[in-house]
Amino acid sequence: MNAVIFYEYNQLITGSTINMFEYFLCAYQYNKDLKLILINARRSTIKKFLGIIENRYILDGIEDFSKNIICISKSVLIRMEFDTVLVLDYNTINHTRGLLRADKIIVISEKYTDKYFYSKTKYNVTYYGEMPFHYRDIKYRMKCLFYRFKPLREINTGTYINSPKNDENVEILALSLGAPEPFITKSKTKHKENLFEQFTTYVYYHADKWFDPHPRLFLECKYYGKEIIYYNPSGVKDGSWYRYYDVLLHGLNDRTLNREDEIIGELINE
To answer: How many CA atoms lie within 13 A of 98 on its CB side?
Structure first.
C-alpha cells in the first residue's frame, strides 16, 4: 500500500496541509488504491479539510477521493505496513519516527534536525528539497496542483498581509509600501474561504521573528496574477527569500504538479 501520511497536531491550515492535499489528489487520479493517512485527526478537522478541498479544487474524475482518507491513532500506525510513503511536514517526522514501517519513505521538507529526521541507518528514506540551507538527497522544485485550481470569480481590491510570528505595525507598513486597502491579515485560527477573491496585492513582511522554510503563497499569488510586495529589511535568506526571487526570475516554470513529477511517479508505481 502506498500512502501520503500527515500528523495533524494543531487543527491549523498551513502550507504543508495544502501540499498534503495536492500531492494526494494528484496521485490519486492515477492510483485509486493510494491512501491519505491522517494521524491524530479529529472529526471536526476532517470536515474542515474536506470543505477546503471542495472550495479550492476542481474534482472532476476524483470525486470519490474521500473514501481513501483513513484516520488513525499512533498506536494503529505501529501495526500498519506500507510500500511507499510520502511525508510533507516535519512534525509528521517527529511523531512517526520509530513507528512507521515502510519499504520506502519520501520526504519533502525544509527542516531537518535530529528531531525532524528519519535515520538513514534505520529507514530507506530519500530527502527531496528545494532550499539550500537544509540537507537533501535530491534537489527538487515544490509544485502546485494548478490545473485543478478553481477559477476566481469577482475579485475585490485589497491587500493580504503575511508577517510570520508578527502582528506589530503590519497595516502601517502596508500603507507605507503603497498597498491598497482594505487589509486582511493572516489568521492563525480560521481558513478563509475563497481567499484569493478577497485581495489584489500580497504583502510578505519578514520581521525577522520566524525562519520560514518554504512558503507556498508566493506560487499561488503568482498563478492568480496578484501583485507581490516582499519586504525583508534584515535580508534574511530563508525560504521566503529564495521563493520570492525564484518566482521573480523564473515565474512558475516547472511548478505544476502532474503525472510527470518524479514523486507522483513513485506514488503511482511508474
So the answer is: 5
Write the pLDDT tens digit of every residue in 182-221: 999 876 546 678 999 999 999 999 999 988 988 999 999 9
Length of the chain: 270
Helix (H, G, I), strand (E, B) or coil at 106: strand
For 129, the 3-state DSSP assignment is strand
3-state secondary structure of 92: helix
Question: 263 with 189, same domain?
Answer: no
Q: Which amino acid is at 158?
A: G
What are the CA-CA distances from residue 263 to residues 41, 49, 98, 144, 234 (Å)? 25, 23, 23, 13, 35
112 and 226 share one domain:
no
Whether the pLDDT of residue 114 is over 80: the answer is no
Overall domain count for the chain: 2
Condensed to tens digits (0 to 9), the pLDDT of residues 32-67 reads 999 999 999 988 888 889 999 999 999 999 999 999
What is the rounded distance in angstroms from the CA atom of residue 38 to the CA atom of residue 211? 26
Are residues 167 and 240 both part of a single domain? yes
**Residue 221 backbone dihedrals phi, psi, to 5 degrees:** -65, -40
CB neighbour burial string for 23-44, b if at least 16 within 10 angstroms, e if fewer: bbbbbbbbeeebbbbbbebeee
